[in-house]
Design goal:
single chain, 3 helices, nine-stranded mixed sheet, about 325 residues, mainly beta
Length: about 325
C-alpha cells in the first residue's frame, strides 16, 4: 500500500498501489522516451520524500556451483562455505525497508539541470560495484577490473523477452595483480585497477552488466534522461527536489521488487510518500537459467573453497512478517 500525506499543504492523495506487471515494465524500459528533456537554469519546484519497503515472500538469491566456473578459489572467497556462491544479496533493513532501490519519475519534460559525471563501475572480489545504480542516458561508463583475474564484460538492455546484447569486451586485470597474493596463507593482496573499458548508450531503460566467465557477477543501472532519480538509503529513505508541478508516475525499481504509483506535485511544497513494493522474481535475464541446484544435490560443491572475505548466508525470513 502507498501512504501519501503532505507535510506543508493539503493535497489529493496519490492513487493506490498498482501491482507492477513485469511485461509492461520491461517494454517501458526498453523503448526510448520519445522526447528531449529541457534544462532550465535556476529552476525551483516542488519536493518529494519518503521511504521504500518490501512486502510479500522474499525471493531467495540464485545459487551457482563454483566448480562449474573459472577461478573458483579466488571468487569463492565470497561463498557459502560449501562451494556455492549466491547472486548479489540485498537484505531488507529495519521495518523491511529496501536499501538501494531506484526511485524515479517518468516523463519529466523540463526542470533543473542534469548533473554530468562519468559512472565508475568496478569489479572487485568478483562483484560489480555498485550492484544497482543510476545514470543519465548517454553518460559514459568507466569499467575497472580490480581483481587479479580476467573478466569478460557483457552489457544487455532489458526487454520483455530477455536481453538485447549491446556490448562485450574483456576487462583486463592489472599486470602486477597475482591470485596467489589473495589465496596464500599469511598474505594479503592489494587490489589494483587494470586498463579501463569505456561504454555509453544513448537510450533510456535498464542495463544488466554481467561477466561471461562468472555468471553470478551481475550489476544493474537504470538510465533516465532527467535528474529526477535517486537511490534509497540504508533505511529505504529517498528525496527528490525541485520537481516541476504536475502529475507523474513514481517508479520504484530493484531486482527484488518493483512498483509504480501516481503522485501529484504542487509548487514549493513537499509531498511525503511511503511506498510498499511487492517482492517478485520479475527480473528478466538474457536467457533461461538452470534451477538453483542443477544436479539436484549439493555434493558437487567443494568445501575446500574458503569464504575468507564473506560467508554468504540467506537467513532473511521467507514469509511476510508484516
Amino acid at each position: 500500500m502507498v501512504h501519501v500525506t503532505t507535510e506543508t499543504f493539503p493535497t489529493r492523495r496519490g492513487a493506490t498501489l498498482a501491482l507492477f506487471v513485469a511485461t509492461f515494465w520491461w517494454i517501458f524500459l526498453s523503448v526510448d522516451s520519445g522526447y528531449a528533456y529541457k534544462e532550465v537554469p535556476n529552476f525551483t519546484g516542488g519536493h518529494l520524500q519518503g521511504t521504500v519497503s518490501i512486502k510479500g515472500t522474499l525471493v531467495p538469491p540464485r545459487r551457482f556451483n563454483l566448480v562449474l566456473y573459472a577461478d573458483p578459489y579466488y571468487c569463492g572467497r565470497i561463498s557459502d562455505g560449501q562451494g556455492w556462491r549466491f547472486s548479489p544479496i540485498t537484505k531488507p533493513g529495519p521495518n523491511r525497508s529496501l536499501p538501494g532501490a531506484i526511485v524515479f519519475l517518468e516523463d519529466v519534460p523540463q526542470g533543473k539541470p542534469v548533473p554530468s559525471a562519468p559512472g565508475i563501475i568496478q569489479t572487485k572480489d568478483c562483484m560489480f560495484l555498485p550492484y544497482v545504480g543510476t545514470a543519465k542516458s548517454g553518460q559514459r561508463f568507466h569499467f575497472q577490473n580490480w581483481d587479479p583475474i580476467e573478466h569478460k564484460l557483457e552489457i544487455f538492455l532489458t526487454s520483455s523477452t530477455g536481453g538485447v546484447k549491446l556490448f562485450g569486451q574483456v576487462l583486463p586485470p592489472h599486470p602486477d595483480n597475482r591470485k596467489s597474493d589473495f589465496l596464500s596463507e599469511g598474505t594479503t593482496g592489494i587490489h589494483q585497477a587494470g586498463s579501463e573499458v569505456i561504454f555509453a548508450v544513448d537510450r533510456t531503460g535498464t542495463l544488466l552488466f554481467r561477466c561471461r566467465y562468472h555468471e553470478y557477477m551481475e550489476g544493474w543501472s537504470v538510465l533516465v534522461p532527467h535528474p529526477y532519480v535517486t537511490t534509497a538509503g540504508k533505511h529505504g529513505e529517498f528525496s527528490l527536489t525541485d520537481i516541476p508541478p504536475g502529475t507523474y508516475n513514481l517508479v520504484i525499481w530493484h531486482p527484488m521488487g518493483q512498483s509504480t504509483n501516481t503522485i501529484h506535485i504542487l509548487p514549493d511544497h513537499t509531498l511525503d510518500v511511503d511506498v510498499d513494493v511487492l517482492s517478485t522474481p520479475a527480473t528478466i535475464y538474457p536467457e533461461d537459467t538452470l534451477k538453483p541446484d542443477p544436479f539436484g544435490i549439493d555434493l558437487v560443491g567443494d568445501t575446500h573453497i574458503v569464504p575468507s572475505v564473506d560467508l554468504q548466508q540467506w537467513d532473511v525470513p521467507t514469509k511476510d512478517v508484516r
